[in-house]
Design brief:
The chain is mainly α. The chain has helices at 2-24, 29-38, 44-67, 74-90, 96-108, 112-140, 158-183, 185-197, 207-229, 238-263, 273-286, 298-308, 314-343, 347-358; strands spanning 149-151, 154-156. It has one domain (2-358). The protein contains 14 helices and 2 strands. Strands 1-2 form a two-stranded antiparallel sheet.
Length: 359
């Protein structure tokens, strides 16, 4: 078990190093080091505080979503979330999204299907804000169709950016349709009747076989659907939905502020909050592309692309983006590790369990 999880970690580290090499192979190493040394790292303190406050708000939002089905305390939601985000930073495949409901199931006895449904609901709120910001961005800035940054097998340009936004839109609509289909009692009952009818398809088989299908397949699907739907009980509480949307706005607003405070100590990057909102949106869209754990490499390439829109040199953009990425990620890793120690969660065991769920 530990061997498998350790192998995943090693693979993640190798992918991250390779991704960073691809992102910075055209930037002279001496220039990059000189820029990193020129940053006033005192501004890291308010940046980290903003990042951590943003995560506290994320916890509160998840707590609200969970509370509609099975209330949990703040810290009972905090630790699984931070461990999950920590795993996203060090393991491939966004393993943390599955790890969260697994930990919640182990520690708070919330059914896995309910937990994963709440994670999906949370992602819908984030996607809504990101797509709203993207729509606003298109009215604010003109992206030169000739501008292109190469990263690995990708050419980061306006076409790729729009393609990423389209992909997120389609996925969000699919998730939303699933939420409505499972979350509404009428459609859920219709689905369950369909599941219970499945044994009739085997009219040519023995009754014993039909009963086996009924118990091992139909009833399992019905129970799963019912448990999954409990994660979407938020649909019945409009005021909570409004609260989650408001919290989502605050979370993304704090993220922009954390970018801004980081620029205050970064030479050559003098942008307004509105301009940094554009940078953040572009980075977020590009990191939706399959990439190394922690988005190393693709984050930096996306940052160079975004900052080039505002005349920031490639050297300054690369240095700032790398430093900002580290400041955004490392506190999450540290706090996530701390949460694992406090709760006694075996990270290696969780990693192995996530792999098992994915098979």
């Amino acid at each position: 078990m530990k061997k498998t999880a350790s192998l995943s970690l090693v693979i993640g580290l190798v992918l991250s190093v390779a991704a960073l090499y691809l992102a910075f192979r055209d930037v002279p190493f001496s220039d990059l080091m000189a820029y990193l040394k020129s940053i006033n790292y005192l501004w890291i303190i308010p940046t980290i505080l903003l990042v951590l406050v943003g995560f506290m708000l994320r916890v509160y939002r998840w707590q609200l979503i969970l509370g509609s089905s099975q209330p949990v305390g703040f810290w009972q939601a905090f630790h699984p979330m931070m461990i999950g985000f920590m795993l996203n930073c060090i393991l491939p495949g966004r393993a943390g999204e599955v790890a969260r409901p697994i930990i919640l199931q182990q520690k708070e006895h919330v059914p896995f299907s309910t937990g994963i449904a709440t994670v999906a609901a949370e992602r819908i709120f984030d996607a809504m804000i990101l797509l709203l910001l993207f729509s606003w961005m298109l009215t604010m800035v003109q992206i030169d169709p000739v501008l292109e940054i190469h990263f690995g097998g990708y050419a980061l340009n306006k076409t790729m950016l729009v393609s990423a936004a389209t992909g997120i839109t389609r996925l969000s609509l699919l998730l939303l349709a699933g939420i409505v289909l499972v979350g509404l009692e009428y459609s859920r009952n219709w689905m369950n009747r369909l599941f219970l009818w499945i044994p009739n398809l085997f009219f040519f088989a023995s009754q014993a076989f039909q009963k086996k299908v009924y118990h091992r397949f139909s009833l399992v699907l019905v129970r799963f659907t019912l448990s999954f739907s409990r994660g979407f009980l938020l649909l019945k509480e409009p005021w909570k939905m409004a609260g989650c949307f408001g919290l989502s706005l605050l979370i993304w607003g704090l993220s922009v502020l954390s970018y801004y405070t980081m620029t205050l100590g970064a030479p050559g990057v003098e942008l307004s909050l509105a301009e940094l909102s554009v940078v953040m949106v572009i980075v977020c869209l590009f990191i939706s592309i399959p990439s190394a754990p922690g988005f190393w490499g693709i984050w930096e390439a996306g940052g160079v692309f975004a900052l080039a829109l505002f005349g920031v040199s490639a050297k300054d953009a690369a240095g700032f983006t790398l430093a900002n990425h580290a400041v955004q990620m490392f506190p999450v890793i540290v706090v996530g590790m701390g949460s694992a120690i406090v709760t006694g969660v075996n990270v290696w065991h969780i990693s192995h369990t996530v792999e098992g769920r994915g098979k």
